[in-house]
Amino acid sequence: MTGVAALLDGTRVCICGGSGGVGKTTTSAAIATGMAARGLKVCVVTIDPAQRLANALGLDALGNEPHRVEPAAFAAAGLPLDGELWALQLDAKRTFDDLIERLAPDDRTREEILANRIYRELSGAVAGSQEFTAIAKLHDLAASGEFDLLVLDTPPSRNALDFLDAPDRLTQFFEGRALQALLRPSGVGMKLLGRGTGVALSVLKRITGVDLLTDLSTFFRLLGGLLEGFRARAAQVDALLHDPATRFLLVTSPEREPIDEAIYFHRKLKSARMGFGGAIVNRVHDDHLGEQDGGDLAARLVAEAGISGALARRVADCFADEHALAVRDRENVAHLAERLGAGVPLLLVPHLDEDVHDAGGLVRIHRFLFDVDAGAGAGAGAAQEPRR
């Protein structure tokens, strides 16, 4: 096994983490495709609202439950799937509702919570709910035993660390003093709203017919009976993140800001003792000019290719721009390799001319992720230059 296949040996859950805009969705899909080509039954989970994953997999849309991807397009692109590839796009609200349905002690309580106006507003707004529901969905899929490997495309957040802290933040919300005061059966908590607030809500009820005070009281009463279940689920989710069969792959681009965030993310994973498989650097520029001088290249184009002087200079300038980007990328990748430490796997994916939007594009990315001679180094200190 080479490349990503070696990194994920013995892994049941692969979490692709990193800052937004570095190609996590494409990378997740390519990883899932490559592992399915190796005979595994794989499900890739995305939270990308643009549905680029669905488009790349040749699907009109994805839902909150796994959908089988037809293998014909991948076979036509030169990558037969010996296993099965499934995909879903997480609906955080639907997943949170499903959790309520499981935790509710009876049908009446479940229906009351789901219909409650306060719950409908808060279920999608609780801090960390999207990140928490992503791992909660992973937990359910892992517990089902239906798939050999689950690949998660983490939320498109500028701060990828929010994902790691989601279980703790949700637990802290439910155990916070303010919420606990509101949940006290004596009703004292509701008095914290204050007399003025109560008057205002009464006026609002007369004007709009909306009884927010009753909705709040009902919501907190119903929620009190579910807290233990939420705590237990948060603990299960946290256990999944720390499971030896769960492995994180850091995805970044060669710009300095996402590189620095990847380094910080790695430090966080290490301190939390979570499984780390390696790093993937997307969109690395090739150095076609190398040590040549741009002026010499222009002269050669005039002399050897018969190109006019003005056009030759423009072409040479383009090569010079690519050279500058390649030098920048090389320096930033070297910085990443140094900070991750010796022996940490580092895979490089080149900057492609076209955006990945179909099975053929995923197969192109797959070649660099899974073939060690297509840009994968044996370790951070031995990362090779990618090639097109």
Automatic annotation (TrEMBL):
<dbReference type="InterPro" id="IPR027417">
    <property type="entry name" value="P-loop_NTPase"/>
</dbReference>
<dbReference type="InterPro" id="IPR025723">
    <property type="entry name" value="ArsA/GET3_ATPase-like"/>
</dbReference>
<dbReference type="GO" id="GO:0005524">
    <property type="term" value="F:ATP binding"/>
</dbReference>
<protein>
    <submittedName>
        <fullName>Anion-transporting ATPase</fullName>
    </submittedName>
</protein>
<dbReference type="Pfam" id="PF02374">
    <property type="entry name" value="ArsA_ATPase"/>
</dbReference>
<dbReference type="InterPro" id="IPR016300">
    <property type="entry name" value="ATPase_ArsA/GET3"/>
</dbReference>
<feature type="domain" description="ArsA/GET3 Anion-transporting ATPase-like">
    <location>
        <begin position="11"/>
        <end position="293"/>
    </location>
</feature>
<dbReference type="GO" id="GO:0016887">
    <property type="term" value="F:ATP hydrolysis activity"/>
</dbReference>
